[in-house]
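User: Reviewer 2 asked us to show a designed sequence for the structure in our supplementary figure. I'm pasting the structure tokens here. Could you produce the per-position amino acids so we can include them in the response letter?
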């Protein structure tokens, strides 16, 4: 799954997956490791969430993602972060440029 996410980040393609009982449609921005957990930082643009806030920045634990597919929908590239910076990582695996 991490390989598919890396490819989606490199090609700037939207991903879709199930997470916490909801379908998520996400622009993947960073695949990395934080506190020993591999996570995806993405900008959720569709689907559903328990908070109801979409669009919204979210971190997703990779081991909790199921049914991941890379869609043909491109996204233009990095979006501005509210703080102006990426959130911290122990190690970045892939980042959208």
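Assistant: Here is a per-position design you can include in the supplement:
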């Amino acid at each position: 799954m991490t390989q598919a996410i890396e490819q989606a980040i490199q090609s700037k393609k939207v991903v879709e997956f199930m997470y916490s009982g909801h379908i998520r449609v996400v622009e993947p921005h960073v695949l990395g490791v934080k506190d020993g957990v591999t996570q995806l930082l993405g900008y959720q643009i569709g689907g559903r969430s328990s908070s109801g806030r979409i669009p919204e920045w979210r971190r997703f634990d990779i081991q909790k993602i199921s049914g991941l597919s890379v869609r043909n929908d491109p996204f233009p590239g990095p979006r501005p972060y509210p703080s102006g910076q990426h959130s911290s990582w122990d190690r970045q695996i892939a980042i959208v440029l």
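For the response letter, you might also mention the following. The first strand starts at residue 13 and ends at 19. DSSP finds one helix and six strands in the chain.
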